[in-house]
Amino acid sequence: MTRVHAGQVFRDPVLFLAFGFGAGLAPKAPGTAGTLMAVPLYLWLSQFSQPVYLAAVAAVAVVGVAICGRAAATLRTHDHPGIVWDEFAGYLVTMIPASGSWISLLAGFMLFRLFDIWKPWPISVADKKISGGAGIMLDDLLAGIPAAIGVALVARWLE
Fold first, then answer.
1. Overall domain count for the chain
2. Which site in 53, 79, 87, 125 is 20 to 30 Å from 118, CA atoms measured?
3. Which residues, other chains included, contact 74 with Cβ-Cβ below 8 Å and sequence gap of 6+?
4. Rounded distance between C-alpha atoms, residue 23 and residue 19, angstroms
5. CB neighbours of 112 closer than 8 A, spacing ≥ 6?
6. Spatial distance between the Cα atoms of 127 and 43, rounded to a whole number of angstroms
7. Is 159 a residue whose pLDDT tops 80?
8. Alpha-carbon torsion 104, 147, 128, 58, what sign?
């Protein structure tokens, strides 16, 4: 795997975005650090209407395919652990049904990390079979779907 230095990430705008504004440089659990970095983005976007939120999620996902693909090509490594833009997109998908409460924030974070790490079928298929930026993004977007269902259930039962 290609070793990435902070200076490289902060000098290259594509790597800066792909590495989640530097969160992907975390020496342990960069995906978790990237998901943590996505929380303020969610909090900001959650202030807007649902259609605006959904459009922003779609934009993050579409732009993410290009960002992650270019970062992987630059690093010559498919889905380098430091590439965490996909965690941003997956977490935003997870939070679509969220109420904005701290319970839904915590549930979304935990459920997204669970499905992103566990990668049950069909998430595991997307992770293994699809390459490039689309492959990097797709498994996290898919992980966001069961996590979102969990967030909706938590909101229904606990809020």
1. 1
2. 53
3. 12, 14, 15
4. 6
5. 35, 87, 90, 91, 94, 143, 144, 147
6. 28
7. no
8. negative
Confidence at residue 35, expressed as pLDDT on a 0 to 100 scale: 98
76-113: pLDDT as tens digits: 998 899 999 999 999 999 999 998 899 999 999 999 99
Tokens 């997204």 locate to: 112
**What is the spatial distance between Cα 123 and Cα 134, in angstroms, rounded to a whole number?**
13
Neighbours of 45 (CB within 10 A): 18
What local confidence, expressed as pLDDT, does residue 128 receive?
83
Position 1 in a domain = no
pTM: 0.96
Q: How long is the chain?
A: 159
**At residue 109, what is the residue type?**
F
**136 in a structural domain:** yes
Q: What is the mean pLDDT of residues 112-128?
A: 91
Q: Which domain holds residue 131?
A: 6-158
8, 80 Cβ separation under 8 angstroms: no
